[in-house]
Structure formats: C-alpha cells, structure tokens
C-alpha cells in the first residue's frame, strides 16, 4: 500500500471547477480573454491586459521551457525528499505565463535552463483532484 | 508636491529578545516592543495616534484592538506595509497632519516560516487553488530558484554570493543580541559545506526562523526635538508592490521582478535629494545572499549582474564603502517572521552612534530597504539622517 498523500491540495474554490474538471481528464485549460485574446495565469477575475471579465477556460498546448528549478532536500511534512520545484514558461503568447510546479519522471542531471517541458497530471490517490506536474518533453 | 524631508523623525526603536521558541505570545512581544520604543523616545502610550502593523493582511479590528490596548485617544492614521516604506508613509502622514506619533510594530511567537514550522496532517490540507505550498515552494525554494536563474543569467559563482553569509556572520559576532554571533565567524567553505536545503542553497545561505518583536516610533518635528534621544530625520522614501505574493512570476524574472525595488529606490533618492555616494550605512533586505546582490543592482549601487562582485569586494563589510546589515542581518542576527523593520532599527542605532564595537564612524546618512512576500513583490525604502 502506498503512503497517503499529505501535501497541501487546492481547495477547488468556486469558479475554478472547469480547471479541475479538465485536470481530471489530464488536460490543461487556462482563462483566455474573449475581448483581447490574451491568456491569464494565474486566473484572475479580470484580464490583466484589458480588465474584461469575459474569459473562457481554453485548452493550452501544455508545453513550455524550464526557467529555473530547485532540488529540495528539506521539505515541509508530507513531501518526499528530495523533490523538484520548478518554474516553466508556457508556450502561449503574447504575454508570457510562468507556471510553478513539481518536476517528475526526469533525471535531475538532465535538467537545464531552457529545456523543453510538458505539463502532465497526477491523479491523487483517495482525493478528488488531479495536480499538474512537469516532465521533460 | 515634494516629500516632506526633515518634517518627521524616528525617535524611538526597540527590539525584544530574538530567539527560537520564546515562551511568549505575539501580542506580548508587540506590547513590550511598543512600550519599549515609546520609552526610548520619552513618549507616553496615550500620545500615539498612528499605527502601522508590519502585516500584509491586517483585519481592521486588529488596529481597533490596539487602539483600545494603548488606552489613550483615537488613532487617526492606520496603515499596513513594510518597515522602511512604513517609515516613509508615517512621515508623509505626519506632515499632512493626519497624526503626530506613529508606531510601527511587529511580533511573532511560535509561528515560523520554514518547513520545520509546518504542521504534520493526517489528511492533505486544502489551501487556495494557486497556493505555492501545493508544490512545496516555501521561501528557501523560491530563493533557490531565483539564485539558480541569477547565476545562470549572469555567470555568477555561488561562492561569490556566499561571501554575503560570511560578512553577515562577522557583523553578528559584534552584536551581542544576535542569535548566531556567539557561534563565531564562518568562511565561504563553511557555507558551501553546510547542509543542503534547497539546491543550490545550503543552510548557511538561508535565514534564521525565530521569534521576536520590534517597534519603531516616528514623530512630528516639534515632538521629535524634545524626545530623549536625538532625532533621526526622515529625508525621503517610498513603497511599492509589483507581483502577486509568489503566485505569479514575470519573464524575464531577473530585472523585471525587481521593478518594485528599482521604483522605490529611484523615488527615495529623488525625493530625499541624497545621492548614492552620500550613504554612510545601509540596511538591505537580506533573506538570502541573492537578495542582497539584487538589492544593490536595483537600487543603483552597481550594474545588473554585478551585485555579487560588489559583495565580494567587501563594500558591505564594516570598514568598507557602505557597511550594511551591521547587526548580522536576517542570516545571523534574527529573522522573526516579518523582519522588514529590523534593518531600519539597526540603521537608526548607527545614525545615533549607539552601535559600540560595530559602530560605523561618523555615520550621518543611512538607507534602509525592506521587502516582503514576493521577491520584490512589496518593497520600501527610507533614507534617514542624523542632525
């Protein structure tokens, strides 16, 4: 039997349901402004570019490049040691979006600034949620 | 309208004991600090009419509870902010007639920032959807990622950044109140061989995580002239926020992310009429060595990518061009949860000439930089001077 998952999990707060429904199907959706066409991460009530609230959860490519990372030896309770936390800049434009997440299934020695990454999802055992991770594309 | 230079002064400062696991409450530490800072100034609690807790999220009833605790009269100026920025805002509010005596305060007990302070749960706790703790990105992890990106972009050696840890510890050895000073000086090798925390960072590149309280009293010119200690005049300052509390990161991260610090630095040098060469002593936010390197760059003491060289050249060390964090800073003196006012307190003591073995000779003008939450997400600068 595997260890229970004891790391903090998102609350699935009201308004974010489409994101978590897509995540459960291992698809990344991000709010895209219907007024100016810009993407917004993290999701805000209004578009950062034009402040329109007319935003639609839209499939994103799920690909990006590795900006930076840390291999963490000293984590909070519930985290395996070591784990890798990273910042990945998604391919979508014009404004860049940087996502925070853990890197999985990628040897630490392969990590390089600028390398291609893809978003994957992990179904959390005994919980009603799937969390995004990154791995080498 | 110009910033009201020399219309208000820091007249009182106080640090409680700083240490791990103090048998105190946050409130008790804050009360001791407020009473201590008022006593340092020779002022009474019922003279306080301005309050700035060092908190980013402060319910209004916190201000109201302190209004009642202080027992005197209505509080007419309420604010939140970062230490140095709060000093600048208090001075501006005083000049505008909104208050006469403003107290900036913070206390923390048994509520650490680090992973050791996180509770173990029987079931995964639920947090805000986009919370960084979902991904284990506590403070040292963020700064580890920042350090890696910085070293990559500017071809900086980690050993050169680590020189900052060495300087901070040296200063702490001259500060009897510091937590780490008693352990003695350290070398770059000691830093690089200390326990790995979040690669590339080691233990001695990370801040302390302890309890403690502090308070700063800013008063109007007429009151300041009659206080017990010599007034330390507020010449200028500013505060700015830029990114959303570690939940968003811009690209490029380096340079752009420092927009808050760059902006407040430009404003403070502009509204104080002081130049970089005028600064005798500084308090630069120093939660990690890379933070100090970036502070120096964004404030214009050196060019982008040259912060580590500036540190390595010894300019921040006592005896150097601009001694900084002479109390030992957040790595070797105290990081009490929200230490954004600690740098201001040390610079005030320097400008008063109260620093004993670690005194910067003839220190007349000082600069302090506070940061909070996001790397440069909330920044404040105050430039202050003795008479």
TrEMBL record, chain A:
Name under which the protein is recorded: Zn-ribbon domain-containing OB-fold protein
PANTHER family: BLR3430 PROTEIN
Superkingdom, taxonomy of origin: Bacteria
Cited InterPro entries: ChsH2_C, ChsH2_Znr, NA-bd_OB-fold, Thioester_dehydratase-like
Pfam families with a match to the protein in the record: OB_ChsH2_C (PF01796), zf-ChsH2 (PF12172)
Gene3D superfamilies in the cross-refs: 6.10.30.10
Location of the ChsH2 rubredoxin-like zinc ribbon domain: 20-54
Domain ChsH2 C-terminal OB-fold: 57-122
UniProtKB/TrEMBL annotation, chain B:
CDD domains: SCP-x_thiolase
Thiolase C-terminal domain residues: 259-375
Organism: Sphingomonas crocodyli
Domain of life: Bacteria
Pfam families membership: Thiolase_C_1
Lineage: Bacteria, Pseudomonadati, Pseudomonadota, Alphaproteobacteria, Sphingomonadales
Signal peptide: none
GO molecular function: acetyl-CoA C-acyltransferase activity
Protein name stated in the entry: Thiolase family protein
């Amino acid at each position: 039997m595997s260890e229970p998952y004891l790391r903090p999990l998102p609350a699935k707060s009201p308004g974010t349901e489409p994101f978590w429904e897509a995540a459960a199907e291992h698809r990344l959706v991000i709010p895209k402004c219907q007024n100016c066409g810009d993407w917004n991460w993290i999701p805000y009530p209004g578009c950062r570019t034009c402040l329109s609230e007319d935003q639609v959860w839209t499939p994103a490519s799920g690909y990006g490049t590795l900006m930076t990372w840390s291999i963490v030896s000293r984590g909070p309770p519930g985290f395996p040691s070591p784990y890798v936390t990273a910042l990945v800049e998604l391919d979508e434009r014009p404004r860049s979006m940087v996502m925070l997440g853990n890197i999985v299934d990628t040897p630490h020695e392969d990590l390089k600034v600028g390398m291609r990454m893809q978003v994957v999802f992990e179904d959390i055992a005994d919980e009603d949620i799937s969390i995004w991770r990154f791995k080498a594309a | 309208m110009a910033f009201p230079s020399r219309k208000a002064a820091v007249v009182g400062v106080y640090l409680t004991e700083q240490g791990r696991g103090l048998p105190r409450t946050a409130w008790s530490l804050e009360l001791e600090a407020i009473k201590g800072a008022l006593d340092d100034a020779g002022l009474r609690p019922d003279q306080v009419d301005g309050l700035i807790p060092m908190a980013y999220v402060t319910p209004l009833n916190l201000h109201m509870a302190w209004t009642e605790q202080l027992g005197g009269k209505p509080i007419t100026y309420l604010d939140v902010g970062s230490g140095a920025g709060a000093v600048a805002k208090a001075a501006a509010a005083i000049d505008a007639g909104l208050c006469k005596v403003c107290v900036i305060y913070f206390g923390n007990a048994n509520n650490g920032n680090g992973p050791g302070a996180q509770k173990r749960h029987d079931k995964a706790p639920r947090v805000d959807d986009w919370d960084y703790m979902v991904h284990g990105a506590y403070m040292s992890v963020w700064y580890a990622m920042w350090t890696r990106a910085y070293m990559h972009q500017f071809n900086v050696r980690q050993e050169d950044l680590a020189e900052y840890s060495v300087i901070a510890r040296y200063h702490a050895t001259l500060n009897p109140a510091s937590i780490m000073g008693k352990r003695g000086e350290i070398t770059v090798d000691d830093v690089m061989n200390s326990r790995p925390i979040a690669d590339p960072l080691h233990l001695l590149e990370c801040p302390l995580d302890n309890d403690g309280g502090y308070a700063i009293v800013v008063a109007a010119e007429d009151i300041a002239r009659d206080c017990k200690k010599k007034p330390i005049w507020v010449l200028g300052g500013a505060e700015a926020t830029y990114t959303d509390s570690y939940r968003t990161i811009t690209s490029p991260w380096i340079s752009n992310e420092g927009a808050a610090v760059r902006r407040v630095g430009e404003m403070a040098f502009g509204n104080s009429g002081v130049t970089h060469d005028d600064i005798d002593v500084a308090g630069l936010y120093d939660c990690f060595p890379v933070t100090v390197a970036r502070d120096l760059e964004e404030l214009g003491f050196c060019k982008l990518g040259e912060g580590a060289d500036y540190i390595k050249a010894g300019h921040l060390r006592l005896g150097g061009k601009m001694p900084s964090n002479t109390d030992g800073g957040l790595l070797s003196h105290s990081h009490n949860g929200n230490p954004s006012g600690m740098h201001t307190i040390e610079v005030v003591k320097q400008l008063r000439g109260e620093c004993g073995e670690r005194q910067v000779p003839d220190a007349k003008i000082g600069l302090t930089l506070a940061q909070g939450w996001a790397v440069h997400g909330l920044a404040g600068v105050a430039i202050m001077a003795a008479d």
